[in-house]
Amino acid sequence: MMREMFSDLDVERIGFFEMGPIRPPSEGGDLSLLIRATRNCPWNKCQFCPIYKDVKFEYRSVKEIEKDIDVVKALVDKIKKTSWMLGLTGKINSEVINRIIRGNQEIYVGSGDKLDSLRFQNLVNVANWLASGAKTVFLQDANTLIMRTPELVEVIRYLKESFPSIERVTSYARSKTCARKHLEELEQLHGVGLSRLHVGLESGCDEVLEEMRKGVSAAEHIEGGKKVVKSGISLSEYVMPGLGGREWSEKHALETARVLNEINPDFIRIRSLKVPKNAPLYQKLQAGEFEEPSEDEIIEEIELLIKKLNCDSYVASDHILNLLPEVEGKLPEAKERMLKVIETYKTKPFFEKLEFRLTRRLGDYARFRRLDPELNKKVQEAYGSIRNKSQDAKLKADEAISALKEGFM
Q: pTM for this one?
């Protein structure tokens, strides 16, 4: 019966459109349609990043991208037709989404075929995007701004002509690429609908940028960021507390604050460091060439950063690796409140602080997956040590928290 109902929604006949591996949390939950404008990362040398390391960067032609947009249009038409078939007059609500996803999961995911899996991902993304109002699009992958400006302009125009409901188009970009674009090009992109750029600043400290092979200097961060702000494009700058290790921790925080104050971006997004096992930096960590700060040391670093920020940005703590997501708000008004959150955490008694950290990380983990027996045992042993105020409580808590955070990656 389910197969019959969804035979008209034949994703195989429509084809599929490419989707890259990542997008910002603010574009998540299938709020945004994901359109792959370039493949992978043109720089691909950052030591802390495990993504794209085994694949080469590739441009996509405008025709390729527009063909993908046409596939999205065909899917939209099919989904709306299914809504009519269900007697919902073309409306896309949770009932339509659930019926479509359940039916096609049986058809496509059950096949075990890789292309069928991609088609199903397409379907889920488009269906949820429609349900959210079809207002936002995120252009993938790591640095769409590297496209020739006339070509990127054409892609954005085609998108907005295809879907008049679109209100926001966003993408990742590198500071160096922003700096190399003429202001007039950025203004043109803003004029046709490029709403926001997400830039990985990570640090404003040249020693850290060099050590992490970021491929950009603090001065280039400032030049690129100020140019984007001046163009009218909204700018999100990502910072990574802990990236300087113990050696550069203070300078990392101070210089990052200095650079951000110069740029005055719309958003400062905190991404606390956790070194993934498949990132080049992990090898340095294992060899003793990099000391990863503790969670408490990262909190100290965030506190120093917040204290030194003198800009009008919104500080966002929208990533699962951040211990204190409450450290968020519009500057300068929210600075005192954010520092109070940090102070409240810092002044907790030792064992209470350990339990707070473990409970928060466990709660974050439980939001998207179950604990396997081995990890559950490790967590329960850590809780027992904390409540008994054992000498090994910190060691056991740190081990359990590290294992939970590995699951976030």
A: 0.92
